[in-house]
Design a protein that fits this description.
Blueprint (H helix, E strand, L loop, with lengths): L1 E6 L4 E8 L7 E9 L6 H19 L3 E5 L7 H20 L4 E4 L1 H9 L6 H11 L9 H39 L1
Parallel strand pairs: 1-4, 4-5
Antiparallel strand pairs: 1-2, 2-3
């Protein structure tokens, strides 16, 4: 499974591609940050994020895109920019028919470190260890994008089984009502 992880942001949008399957060693195929100038018009910043993500999709051809689910923050301007960048990433994937998964920050931290309250340094250290890298990816947005991809690879099989079970249950319940 090849996953593009996206840590959305307007100034720095972390991107990272990981390949592998749950239970086996994972491989980092690329990591980086799509940057936009703080003083640029919002529409141009969103366009720059879109162009950057499109380049990553073209180059790495992921099967899935994992995006950090936007959560409430104290600074409304920050959460708005994060939400807008997140929407751009989802749009780019949807345009190509690539499934998108949203993961909460605590879900990603728990998957990668074992604790949903891990700090950025712990996430970076575990990403470095799991992907057998020489040093933690910088900035933290890049490491977070890789953590999102790892989280999705590890959690997707269980999530798929759960969704299939719910679908079977729903189909069985519906069939019982029509009989």
């Amino acid at each position: 499974m090849r996953v593009l992880g996206v840590d959305p942001g307007l100034t720095r949008c972390g991107v990272g591609v990981v390949e592998g399957v749950a239970g086996r060693p994972l491989t980092m195929l690329g990591v980086g940050v799509v940057r936009t100038p703080v003083d640029a018009d919002l529409s141009h910043r969103l366009l720059a994020v879109e162009q950057g993500i499109e380049q990553w999709l073209d180059e790495h051809r992921p099967e899935f895109v994992a995006v950090e689910r936007v959560f409430s923050q104290h600074n409304v301007r920050t959460v708005m920019g994060t939400a807008q960048a997140s929407a751009v990433a989802m749009l780019c994937a949807a345009r190509r028919g690539i499934p998108v998964a949203l993961h909460t920050p605590s879900e990603v931290k728990a998957a990668v470190t074992g604790s949903g309250r891990a700090d950025k340094a712990q996430v970076g250290a575990m990403v470095t260890r799991l992907l057998r890298l020489a040093a933690p990816p910088k900035p933290a947005d890049a490491a977070d994008a890789l953590a999102l991809a790892i989280c999705h690879i590890w959690r997707a099989p269980a999530q798929n089984r759960l969704q299939q079970a719910v679908a079977r249950h729903t189909a069985h319940a519906t069939k019982g009502r029509t009989a």
